[in-house]
């Protein structure tokens, strides 16, 4: 007679990965693009107000960018204007070749796919910027689904909506607890925890450190996303 402990656990067949800082190195382009957008709204680089706002941008890496601008600039019209300026500036920097995959990231995604897992790439950027990043990397066909906040009802991280959208759209797992979420920011961790994902892995290649990631719910902290396939394999053993 088979006991409950003899029953094989379902695999972690849905893997939701952040982009900038997790699978993609952008060399500080977020801060550069923010400075460009802030200047259009009269924020002088080097001023105390600019420094305060830039610090907030750093602290909220991973959050939907329009949410960040709503906080910084108050009314919706100014926030939308700043967001558009930011996306335009970031897109120009991406087109200038200022972006690259993090070491081992593509190989990790390809290994996960070869193991039969569904990989989804997510971002806090708008769709046009996400597509520009994918095109710059030659990743348009790397995964079956990519998501930005607008694809999940408009709410980005720290809300769980993009992870849950990946769960619903792919049908890759029957239980959201068999989902893996990986990212480099506190907001990625909160999004994963709030979605009910079974593995919420922080990586140390981006914005936030080990203490920040663990404090916001990381079940594991890795040096990079290249270590994720082995982590998942161990969790299934």
Detailed description of the structure:
- The protein contains 10 helices and 8 strands.
- The chain is of the alpha/beta class and about 240 residues long.
- The protein folds into 2 domains: about 5-25 and about 100-235, Rossmann fold, CATH 3.40.50.1000; about 30-95.
- The strands form 2 sheets. The protein has a 6-stranded parallel sheet. It has a two-stranded antiparallel sheet with strand order 2-3.
- CATH topology type of the largest domain: Rossmann fold
Strand order across the largest sheet: 5-4-1-6-7-8
Shape: globular
CATH architectural category of the largest domain = 3-Layer(aba) Sandwich
Category from helices, strands and their pairing: alpha/beta
Number of E-type strands:
8
Task: Write a short abstract of this structure.
The protein is an alpha/beta fold and 237 residues long.
Secondary-structure map:
Elements: E1 14-18, E2 24-25, H1 29-40, H2 48-59, H3 65-73, H4 76-95, E3 100-101, H5 105-114, E4 118-122, H6 127-137, E5 145-147, H7 161-170, E6 179-183, H8 186-195, E7 199-203, H9 210-215, E8 220-222, H10 228-236
Parallel strand pairs: 1-4, 1-6, 4-5, 6-7, 7-8
Antiparallel strand pairs: 2-3
Structure keywords:
237 residues; alpha/beta; Rossmann fold; 2 domains; six-stranded parallel beta sheet; two-stranded antiparallel ribbon; 10 helices
């Amino acid at each position: 007679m088979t006991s409950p402990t003899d029953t094989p656990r379902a695999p972690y067949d849905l893997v939701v990965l952040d982009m900038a800082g997790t699978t993609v190195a952008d060399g500080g382009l977020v801060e550069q693009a923010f400075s460009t957008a802030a200047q259009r709204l009269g924020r002088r680089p080097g001023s105390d107000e600019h420094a305060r706002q830039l610090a907030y941008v750093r602290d909220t890496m991973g959050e939907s960018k329009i949410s960040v601008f709503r906080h910084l600039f108050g009314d919706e019209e100014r926030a939308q204007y700043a967001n558009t300026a930011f996306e335009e500036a970031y897109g120009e920097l991406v087109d200038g070749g200022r972006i690259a995959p993090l070491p081992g990231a593509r190989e990790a995604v390809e290994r996960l796919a070869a193991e039969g897992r569904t990989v989804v790439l997510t971002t806090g950027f708008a769709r046009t910027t996400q597509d520009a990043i994918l095109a710059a990397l030659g990743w348009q066909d790397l995964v079956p689904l990519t998501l930005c906040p607008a694809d999940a009802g408009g709410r980005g991280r720290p809300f769980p909506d993009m992870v849950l959208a990946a769960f619903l759209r792919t049908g890759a797992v029957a239980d959201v607890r068999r989902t893996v979420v990986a990212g480099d920011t506190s907001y990625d961790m909160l999004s994963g925890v709030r979605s009910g994902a079974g593995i919420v892995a922080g990586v140390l290649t981006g914005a936030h450190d080990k203490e920040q990631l663990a404090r916001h719910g990381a079940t594991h902290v890795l040096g990079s996303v290249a270590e994720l396939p082995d982590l998942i394999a161990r969790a299934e053993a």
